[in-house]
């Protein structure tokens, strides 16, 4: 029954979206179908058919991807003007969206793996086709090879799991007679694959490159939905990991330390897009760290951070692109003093940076508090790293805000006004992030 | 058009059939000889600059391997009329014939001086004799076999890094595919058949498409099927090239050959890198004008629909 509140909220919000794009209507229809499902079948897990199902985390990911992709189709309108094929852009977006939605809805481990892998291909084509610079080829190789190198060994270990039992996610709870050695190897393979996808600090080199070279919609989707699939994978395979819970504390050290380091890297970035990419590395580290405590609170905190970071990082990438389209530079110093030109949009900068460093009324505060509480319950030494990390996050957010908004502006912008489209897209990132605080009992 | 071409190709096909269906080593040897003797005139149909040299090289290698096969037959005690226990010289003959592992160099040299269609024949049908030698001798996963599997994929990885010609890239990547095929031929027969069929099909498809462009490193800018085909050849999950691989891997995982399969998978990762390096230009949309390109739109649309249909069918089978 708790699904009602969030669905009703989103349906009401997506009514005006329907007027703007066709996918808005599709979005509304999907939300309505999910709504009907939650009415007619009770319980925490909803089976759509024998192989398709959704529960809380996949429900959130489905809604998230529909929500963001319907905004992506709005953004695609500018390719009409730029003489780059709009039709192909739409095709890739549809393909990518269906792959992501399928990958979280299949109850089969192998199907998840396949869609998880293949969701890389349309993303890669979006980066190659609609990217800005020649360096996108290098970014493409980084993205592709990092991910493939991690996830091909994982394929073999999923096949090994298959030789023990069926590959249904839900059957993993009943897997009994496996050896600890096997679980250790599966665990290591999953660690590498999903840590590269996450990305953990140390495996993260592809992410800033991909974000810098991707067109705005590509990097929005990458930050908002694709990075979250690793949390989904860990969540589904966690029943297998029961004998190895102690091992996760080693991973925790890397995750939290990586969050601190990537936030420190943010402080000395001059490229706005890669700054936000690094900040999302840090947030992802905290998110997965919260999950790795394997407590109720940690899990809920991870899901909450997942939702809040999806909306906030995607909106921040949109804002950076807004400035890029006017100054043709992502450098922070070529975009300073923007308050004179774009006064209204600056309020959105403020709000999304506030969400980014988890200021009080927003969802991200709840998530980070949850991670803090569950970590202090285990060991108080996490306090130093996490406290310092959240301080540094706040520091670079204030630094970014002060440079972009304040100071003397350069005067060589293309004078495009703030359009309705920008406000529309940004408020459709902001409203869910704000209103979900009212529905905290859902998570 | 050579007058002898129909006769030659008929004898060529007969020799392949005979090789597949022979039940003793002597008949196998005869059909193998017939095969190489029919193939050499086929190589010479279209005159190229170094065609004679290439056919001589091919003849020498095939002659040496058939001599070795004859010696291996004589050496064995129960031998001549019987398919018996495999010995290492038989396996080595097979490796020499298909250019696996350390015997790769003659194939690589050959690839520069023959036409693309002959190269495709050598990379697909001419390898059948080696594989059927292994199948008939019922070779298991011995140390020699393992060494050659590892060597093939290692060498393919490192040689392929510095190739920038399309033909030589195909040749070297066929070496890494040979390591998969060798693994399959000694563990799972159906996996080998499936892999061989899909690999030959996609190889021919991709290279005939590629043949349309004058400069083989740059392609028409707005087509998708080239990267898709190459991804399929590299074995990215839902593409057709992935399913034979997963069939082989499942068999390997049943017999707990973890090290071999992880090694093969990581080599496949390098393969994908190589294939993508040759195909990413077709995914770049706003890349100025590529001068030496002819657009072949109608044909490529057909190809695209073909590969899409194959992909969808495969996914349907999987699910």
List the helices and strands and how they pair.
The complex is a heterodimer of chains A (443) and B (319).
Chain A: H1 3-20, H2 22-40, E1 46-47, E2 53-54, H3 56-75, H4 78-81, H5 86-105, H6 109-118, H7 120-130, H8 136-164, H9 180-197, H10 206-213, H11 216-224, H12 229-237, H13 248-267, H14 272-291, H15 296-327, H16 343-356, H17 363-378, H18 382-405, H19 420-435
Antiparallel strand pairs in A: 1-2
Helix pairs in contact in A: 1-2, 1-3, 2-3, 3-5, 3-11, 3-15, 3-19, 5-6, 5-7, 6-8, 7-8, 8-9, 8-10, 9-12, 10-14, 11-15, 13-14, 13-18, 14-15, 14-17, 14-18, 15-16, 15-17, 15-19, 16-18, 16-19
Chain B: H1 5-21, H2 25-43, H3 51-75, H4 88-98, H5 105-112, H6 116-123, H7 128-136, H8 143-160, H9 166-187, H10 189-210, H11 225-234, H12 242-254, H13 258-277, H14 297-318
Helix pairs in contact in B: 1-2, 2-3, 3-4, 3-5, 4-7, 5-9, 8-9, 8-13, 9-10, 9-12, 9-13, 10-11, 10-12, 11-13
Features of this protein?
heterodimer, A: 443 residues, mainly alpha, two-stranded antiparallel ribbon, 2 strands, 1% strand, B: 319 residues, 14 helices, 70% helix, globular
Task: Give a quick precis of the structure.
By secondary structure, chain A is mostly helical. Chain A has helices spanning about 5-20, 20-40, 55-75, 80, 85-105, 110-120, 120-130, 135-165, 180-195, 205-215, 215-225, 230-235, 250-265, 270-290, 295-325, 345-355, 365-380, 380-405, 420-435, and strands at about 45, 55.
